[in-house]
TrEMBL record:
This is Sodium channel regulatory subunit beta-3. PROSITE patterns: IG_LIKE (PS50835). The lineage of its organism: Eukaryota, Metazoa, Chordata, Craniata, Vertebrata. The keyword Signal applies. InterPro entries: Ig-like_dom, Ig-like_dom_sf, Ig-like_fold, Ig_V-set, Na_channel_b1/b3. SUPFAM superfamilies: Immunoglobulin. Keywords: Cell membrane, Disulfide bond, Glycoprotein, Immunoglobulin domain, Ion channel, Ion transport, Membrane, Signal, Sodium, Sodium channel, Sodium transport, Transmembrane, Transmembrane helix, Transport, Voltage-gated channel. A voltage-gated sodium (Nav) channel consists of an ion-conducting pore-forming alpha subunit functional on its own that is regulated by one or more beta subunits. Forms homodimers and homotrimers. SCN3B is non-covalently associated with alpha subunits and induces the formation of alpha subunit oligomers, including trimers. Interacts with SCN5A/Nav1.5; regulatory subunit of SCN5A/Nav1.5. Interacts with SCN7A/Nav2.1; probable regulatory subunit of SCN7A/Nav2.1. Interacts with SCN10A; regulatory subunit of SCN10A/Nav1.8.
Amino acid sequence: FCMLKMSALRLVWVPMLLCVTHAWLCHGVCVEVDSDTEAVLGKGFKLTCISCKMRGETQASATVDWWFMAKGESEFTQIYNYADIRGYIMDDRFADRLHWNGSKNTVDVQDGSIYILNVSYNDTGTYRCYFDRNLFFSNYEFHTNDTKFVTINVMGRATRGVASILSEIMMYVSIIGLQFWLVVEMVYCYRKIAAAGEEALRESEAEYLAITSESKDNCAGVAVAE
């Protein structure tokens, strides 16, 4: 029973893992995630901006523009432009401090993230990420755009958010739960195997006694005949 149960689990999970792995390696799954919002003074910080295409098989090209409105200001200023696989810093405040951290070696950009080096308190504010995309179909082109906002605060030192703490707690709870489940399964399988072994031993013993008794009867019959 336990072996059949484990085999069934393998039949279910192995194809799923193969499908997920195949999709990840061959099709480059795009997933939109939010950017972090707390930067640490003097450290590097990634401004995440991901805009996935609605149809992955459609050819496309996209440009990405980043804008920045510092804390206390009322207007956005363009700080970075990425087009034709090249990035350009547009604001002297970020000279030599901005690097492209998105899609590589393709005009079909879906990850428009950038990386800020040596973060300062002056980098506190709201950042706007703007995707300008053309989708190429067989008979026409379709133009679309997408805008995302990221507001960051610069901290003197790294802090742990509530979400991070809760995630770690849930991870440990999951690990303990899985270990408990494995122990229960092992005990259950051991009992089933032990019971099956005892039953087989009893059957063997009964069969041996039956054979012994039959042999004695045969020997007694032979002796009487002589």
